From TrEMBL:
<dbReference type="InterPro" id="IPR053926">
    <property type="entry name" value="RecX_HTH_1st"/>
</dbReference>
<feature type="domain" description="RecX first three-helical">
    <location>
        <begin position="11"/>
        <end position="50"/>
    </location>
</feature>
<protein>
    <recommendedName>
        <fullName>Regulatory protein RecX</fullName>
    </recommendedName>
</protein>
<dbReference type="InterPro" id="IPR003783">
    <property type="entry name" value="Regulatory_RecX"/>
</dbReference>
<comment type="similarity">
    <text>Belongs to the RecX family.</text>
</comment>
<dbReference type="GO" id="GO:0006282">
    <property type="term" value="P:regulation of DNA repair"/>
</dbReference>
<comment type="function">
    <text>Modulates RecA activity.</text>
</comment>
<dbReference type="Pfam" id="PF21981">
    <property type="entry name" value="RecX_HTH3"/>
</dbReference>
<feature type="domain" description="RecX third three-helical">
    <location>
        <begin position="123"/>
        <end position="145"/>
    </location>
</feature>
<keyword id="KW-0963">Cytoplasm</keyword>
<dbReference type="InterPro" id="IPR053925">
    <property type="entry name" value="RecX_HTH_3rd"/>
</dbReference>
<dbReference type="InterPro" id="IPR036388">
    <property type="entry name" value="WH-like_DNA-bd_sf"/>
</dbReference>
<dbReference type="GO" id="GO:0005737">
    <property type="term" value="C:cytoplasm"/>
</dbReference>
<dbReference type="Pfam" id="PF21982">
    <property type="entry name" value="RecX_HTH1"/>
</dbReference>
């Protein structure tokens, strides 16, 4: 019985497989193909073909992903930017996606994040720390905690101060 030796797919075929699973930036897709030991020439040819067929466009992909995270409304703009930069999109492109109504979004996103995370009683400071670690500014954290305490007073644990 003969064993069939499976041939390695071309860089183009592998790139299409990877893009079918998840949208990638050119940088991240190149990194994945390099790890699979494709040559620069093979990758360049694959990218050329993918661009021709409109399967690879960093600008559109970045705008689409930024819009998705922004509309979801649970992440700060700073957190969204960091996530997209980690996914290989150029910093300038990511920052160009930030809409002008960023401040409104930040306050709503911080409030939604707090509501989704804290379902039982919690101290105000703990909420602020949680939000600040997610990239929200100090003033946005303050506003979100204030709104949270107004809408869910039963979830706020009153701080206890001791006299010494």
């Amino acid at each position: 019985m003969r064993r069939r030796i499976k041939e390695k797919p071309t860089a183009l075929v592998k790139a299409v497989e990877l893009l079918a699973q998840q949208e990638h930036s050119e940088a991240k897709l190149r990194e994945k193909l390099m790890r699979r030991e494709y040559t620069e020439d093979e990758i360049d040819y694959a990218f050329e073909r993918l661009r021709e067929k409109h399967y690879l466009n960093d600008e559109e992909a970045c705008r689409r992903q930024f819009g998705y995270f922004f509309e979801d409304g649970r992440m700060s703009v700073r957190q969204i930017c960091q996530k997209l930069i980690q996914r290989g999109f150029p910093r300038e492109l990511v920052y160009s996606c930030i809409p002008e109504d960023k401040e409104e979004h930040e306050e709503e996103a911080a409030f939604r994040a707090a509501c989704g995370h804290f379902r039982s009683t919690v101290k105000r400071d703990k909420i602020k720390q949680f939000l600040y670690r997610r990239g929200f500014s100090f003033s946005v954290c303050e506003a979100a905690v204030h709104r949270f305490s107004e809408e869910y007073p039963d979830r706020i644990e009153e701080e206890q101060y001791f006299d010494e």
